[in-house]
Design brief:
Elements: H1 21-24, H2 41-69, H3 77-84, H4 86-115, H5 120-149, H6 155-190
Helix pairs in contact: 2-4, 2-6, 4-5, 5-6
């Protein structure tokens, strides 16, 4: 098997628009639209997808919340930020994502590689995504800490956090979609 290179554009989560043909050919055959009809769907597959829906909704809510702050008059930004509790929400989302990925990295992914050695590149792709996501989450958390320390709140800083939150949302969206394409068929196969 050739060495997997995550940084290639067709693999990197910030650059790819879908899974590469080389990755797709190693996956279990499955049609996303048929998943809910599978007899094992109501188990781990549905649970996993529910977690992903929550993470996607949270990342969208965080990005929308910070973008909405940019419409506030400068004198009201501090109060609007406090009222929306975006910093607390962001920290909760970041913690949830870290926890979800730790469970995958330490429990599920090693088992999946044992079951399907030919999917090693697909699992390595997800692991590479987790590293990129980890950095994006750390950057977002630092931005939230900096924002909390800022008095008064600087509009440019809100714009930076809004931009970073939207970028985080894009990474999460791409990663979770592709992770589902790789993992859900395994969960359907093994319950």
């Amino acid at each position: 098997m050739t060495k997997f290179k995550y940084k290639k554009p067709e693999n990197h989560v910030k650059k790819r628009s879908e899974l590469s043909p080389a990755i797709k050919q190693t996956l279990l055959e499955s049609i996303r639209e048929d998943w809910p009809e599978h007899p094992r769907y109501r188990g781990m597959a549905d649970f996993w997808l529910g977690i992903h829906r929550s993470l996607l909704q949270g990342s969208h809510q965080l990005a929308d919340g910070f973008e909405a702050l940019l419409d506030s008059p400068p004198s009201e930004i501090q109060d609007a930020l406090s009222a929306k509790k975006l910093q607390q929400f962001g920290n909760h989302l970041i913690g949830h994502l870290h926890h979800h990925h730790e469970i995958e990295d330490h429990n599920y992914f090693p088992q999946f590689i044992q079951l399907y050695p030919n999917m090693e590149h697909a699992i390595n792709l997800l692991d590479g995504d987790h590293q990129v996501l980890h950095q994006a989450l750390e950057d977002t958390q630092l931005a939230l800490v900096d924002l909390l320390a800022q008095k008064p709140i600087d509009r440019d800083m809100i714009a930076q956090v809004a931009k970073g939150s939207r970028e985080l949302e894009k990474i999460i969206t791409r990663h979770l979609w592709d992770e589902e394409e790789i993992i859900i068929p395994i969960l359907l196969e093994h319950g």
